[in-house]
Amino acid sequence: MSDKDRDLRCAIVGLGPRGLGAIEALIVAMAGSGITTRIDGFDPVEWAGSGPNFLPEQTSQCLLNIPTREVDIAPAPALKLSIGDFEGWLANPAERDCFPTRARLGEYLAERFSQVVNSRPHGLVINRHTARIIDLDSCDEGLFLTSETERYGPYDEILLTLGQPETKPDDQMSRWLSHAAKCGAEVRPAYPDRKLLEYARNWAGRTIAIRGLGLSTMDVLRLLTVGLGGAFSDGRYIRSGQEPARILPFSLDGQPPVPKPVNEDLDQRFDITSAEADAFAAALGTAITGAPSDALDMICGGLVEPATRILHATGGQASVIAVKDWLATERENPGAQETRPPVEALRANIAIASGEVAPDVGYVIGQIWRKLQNVLRGGFNPTAIDTDTAAAIIGFDEGLKRYSYGPPLRSAQELVMLVEAGLVSLLVADDPDIELVGGGWRFREGDAELDSSVIVDAVIPPAILESLTEPLFLKLQEKGFVSALPDGLGLRTEPDGRLLGPHGKASPRPSLLGRMAIGSVIAVDSIHDCFGASAKRWANGVRSRRSG
Ligand SMILES: Cc1cc2nc3c(=O)[nH]c(=O)nc-3n(C[C@H](O)[C@H](O)[C@H](O)COP(=O)(O)OP(=O)(O)OC[C@H]3O[C@@H](n4cnc5c(N)ncnc54)[C@H](O)[C@@H]3O)c2cc1C
Question: What is the pTM of this model?
Fold first, then answer.
């Protein structure tokens, strides 16, 4: 039998949403090829399809950061699944403007995974293994995987979709962990949420600090309040008596993320026209070929016209100069435009997000940027970009995440209610000095000084190779399958996901999609990216290599 007649042997390590998106894309790409495709999927977790962030078993306190109507991940018609898009699956029109729980999306993804596996289209065999993979190697026969107990292979293709791999604690966290071990204080991760809730049952009356003031902090705040029996009612928080006495979130800039528009009607006011999207795509196309500073010039230039138009239309202050000034600051020092105390800024952004007042420049640019995320991926991801330019564009995108990854209005309103109830304090939120003291930590900012005996870590670690402890990545590094980008970015991959080692393009070699590829790709931390063009590029690459 010639190589061409043989089955395609493929392995996917990590069966979260991206693993599911890749399997679906491969089925579509291989359809009609006449080649039998054998996929071995590996993941130790029970729920395939959902991954840890959308685990169906998590509490209802963890919310999706987009409303139901924006979850745009319908399966390709060619898959012939009976499951449709998420909104149709929910079958409840009242959910359209709501931000569903992440558990609910996880149920949908798990059901979709089962349908894909059980649909058994002609020429496809999928085997699921509940094994954690710890090693990968290659020889003339192909690529192999190893778990604690078995070796699997040979494979023609291996795709790694591990999400955020295990990392070692950063220096600050290491200090806090050893201090906590000595003095009886506690440092706990924000997830898994049920585990945090277990710890929190012993925190009544204590002061709890939270490292981070992003979306995960919103989850933690709900867990430590509603999760412990409290309730929001008539615009205020009603204590259960089980919650901590005080909660102190803090971050490098002390500003909570900015809530998204409350409903579809309001959200549409920030829509960009297709001509504006095309103009931005063209500007981006030139930007990615230029030096970092020129690239940001082009990208910012592409935002001025739509921002000014939308500001005019929504009754905001609309001068081109104001928009350009705002963008100039954002490039140099993201978020430095915000000089108001956190609670004041939060209240102002709530008024904008609920449509009570006209949006300001930052809000408009932030919403435009959210709506351009797919255009951004479309221009950035298929292209090999100079590392410094890529880092500059990614830095700009990361800064604007305070808008583009904003929470539901409800979460922002709840945060204000918790501040008003005296349960949450933002007095030491802005990069406080933190001293190790007997029993825990002392936080100081300006005149304020507050002690806590617990720190909850709500910061997602960066995707840096040198901080990984995940055994599979240690092996990949040791064997020269991976090489890191500089400037705190992730791993080098080609546009179709194939990993580039320190010596370039070895063959055969595994592919990688998702968070660890940040730098080679952009805007990965989204459910849309899991089912988007990256998965299709990988699958098409597999087909073309196989078809020769
Ligand atoms: C707390 C949190 C909340 C988020 N909320 C949202 C949101 O609201 N909306 C949104 O669009 N995005 C959100 N994201 C971004 C989110 O990461 C992606 O949308 C999506 O979960 C990424 O999917 P993935 O398959 O790449 O990774 P994951 O979902 O992490 O899946 C990776 C899988 O790989 C498996 N695995 C890991 N190591 C191995 C190994 N060695 N062997 C075998 N299997 C392994 C894991 O068990 C896991 O199931 C959130 C992220 C976090 C961290």
Answer: 0.96
